Amino acid sequence: MNKLLFLSLILFVFNSCNSTKENAMKRIIFLHHSTGKAVMLGSTNRNVYRLTGKGDIHKLFAKYNKKHKTEYTFNSISYPGEIYGGRNYPYDYYNIWVKNAGNKPYKEQATLEMLTKDYDVIIFKHCFPVGFILEDTGKADIDSEDKRLENYYLQYNAIKEKMKSFPDKIFILWTPPALVQEKTTNDQAQRTQALHQWLVNEWNEADDNIFLWDIYKYETEGQLYLKPEYAKGPGDSHPNVDFASRLTPLFGSFIIDCINKQANQ
After folding, report:
1. What is the DSSP code string of 156-218?
2. Beta-sheet strand order (sheet of 170-174)
3. Total-model pTM
């Protein structure tokens, strides 16, 4: 066989395999509450979203699919739901996904076994009260709902090991969102910063199926608090529309980059 023809065939097969792997990771689910919804919508009017079910993130994926001939589908649910209590802190993901794992829902919430049957990319986050972090006691307890770094570390590590048991799936965790200065204390803000640094520098590992999207970095720009100009209003730690619309393409691009990276491993 002609050498040039042989090399061309090898490249074709390689690229085809990568394309197939990329397209195989096409079903995306975003588990969110209000801050996540704000970023998902971006500049889309909420009334328009109620009518169409599509925010800025959906438009981004539609445009990407058209250009690259991919078939990504972006879905979202409020998770955990109100029946569970609506809490979405490290304890709650540990409680549902690890402690009560299995093929049946826990308090009507889908377990990781259930979510991974329907989705290829699972994105989850916390609401900003995750930053109401109390001082450590020296008695870490993985089963405690107390917001303490010592408990968070145990819960995050258990969640990480659980996610690693689904190596063919992609998981994306948002770093903890920041609070405006009026709604927290200096000590709590420093603990939230410490949590962020631990997640980025210690918890996160290279070459696995778990990725961190660093919203904290964008919100604080190296400071302790959500910048006032990015907040929805005085004393409100939700992102405003202008800021959220800046985050949406960053978030969407990050998801695609994670899929591409995993497809090329």
Report:
1. HHHHHHHHHT-TTSEEEEEPPPP--GGGS-HHHHHHHHHHHHHIIIII--TTSSEEEE-HHHH
2. 73-78, 27-32, 121-124, 170-174, 210-213
3. 0.90
Q: Measured between alpha carbons, how far is residue 215 from residues 7, 37, 195, 231, 240 in Å?
A: 43, 14, 13, 13, 14
Contacts 24+ apart (CB under 8 A), 233-240: 234/180, 234/182, 235/180, 235/182, 235/183, 236/180, 237/35, 237/128, 237/177, 237/178, 237/179, 237/180, 237/183, 238/34, 238/35, 238/38, 238/128, 239/35, 239/38, 239/39
For the record, the structure tokens of 142 come out as: 């993985």
SS3 79: coil
Task: For residue 31, give the 3-state DSSP assignment.
Answer: strand
**Which domains, and CATH codes, for the chain?**
26-263 (3.40.50.1110)
Q: What phi-psi label fits residue 29: left (phi over 0), alpha (psi between -120 and 50 degrees) or beta? A: beta
For residue 224, give every residue at least 6 positions away whose Cβ sits within 8 Å of its Cβ, in sequence order, or none: 178, 181, 186, 189, 190, 192, 193
| pLDDT digit string, tens, across residues 47-77 | 998 899 899 999 999 999 999 999 999 999 9
The helix (run of H) or strand (run of E) holding residue 255 is helix 241-263
**Residue 236, H or E segment:** strand 236-239
